[in-house]
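Predict structure. Chain length: 431.
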Amino acid sequence: MQLLRTNVPSLRGTIQVPGDKSISHRAVMLGAIANGTTTIANFLAGEDCLSTIDCFRKMGVAITQNGTDVIVEGKGIEGLKEPTEILNVGNSGTTTRLLLGILAGCSFHACLIGDESIAKRPMARVTKPLAMMGARIDGRDGGNYTPLSIRGGHLQPIQYHSPVASAQVKSAILLAGLMTDGTTTVTEPVKSRDHTERMVRLFGGKVDVDALTVSVSGKQQLKGTNVYVPGDISSAAFFLVAGAIVPDSEIVLQNVGLNPTRTGILDVLQQMGADVAIENIRNEDTEPIGDIMIRTSALKATEIGGALIPRLIDEIPIIALLATQAEGTTIIKDAAELKVKETNRIDTVVSELRKLGAHIEATEDGMIIRGKTPLKADGVTVDSHGDHRIGMMLAVAACITEGTMSLNRPEAIAVSYPTFFEHLQILSEQK
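Prediction complete.
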């Protein structure tokens, strides 16, 4: 348990958030199945991404890591070896689902297991289309939950219409499609994040995108390359909200990824009237990067739903906190996907913010938040529930809360932002 600093007078200064988790995962995975050496700079050395490295090492891939620098010695998909140990994905849903896509194209047998949280997260959304392609997958509830057993190889291409907008589902199928004879396509109801498509091209592969449909041809040979991982906008979101709601604040976040499939948090801040600016945009041909400045702002309520949701699904916990400090009623809808994250994030966000006096209620697919509401605690203990994004949201909430509060299971934050509390301390000490 950790005592949180409450009623922070201001947050000021410049920081660089850790590398993007989604891109770090994919850089290791594609580097492992490419031919030649891949160097990764600004890799996120958080627990989830380290689980990905561990899994590929167990399949014979030489990977060296020195802090945020990683070198992957790829030998092509044929270079992967049958693991002699169970592949432990830890708390990482991305590792689990994307790795299944790669293993679907391998003729050997592998077993995947994760932590208690992963064991509750549905995998049929991935295992069913992979089975349609020819992979043999078994596990609890017909392959819907870990532990999972998979034997791949001899895949057939499919044309898949995904019922959900999920980058993990899309990516798993596309990665399997790289190992088929023929063309595999995935069509989504709404466009999800496109890091896999961009990175396959960076490794010399070809991906075709036509509106909501993405296609890959099989048997492509990827080549090792150099990858720079931009700062994770999902991590930046916590300090963007902190800068907007903590009094007398001005924060600059450098080198943040600005992929348009991920910048929904910036759209919401602008809709709510936040004083936010983006500067020094560059690297637009691969993964765009820029610097974001945020100042304390007078906020107004908004409605969030539809096509915006996939572009900010991971940021909804911190957006809920933002809404408590906006004048009026904010409605978040079309976000039922939150129920199958590390926790049921709808129920968890509502229950934890209510402990601080927030006027928030859960709906079937989102939340209703009434503001502006002062937050108060009197020796309250809040809980991350083992969910990194809930933990960070509550630490930011403490900054504007009167009284004393403690956070149970703060170690969950290390999954995506090992230096979070250090950065919060730096910003609170600068004048």
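Summary: Residues 2-18+230-429 form a domain with the UDP-n-acetylglucosamine1-carboxyvinyl-transferase; Chain fold (CATH 3.65.10.10).
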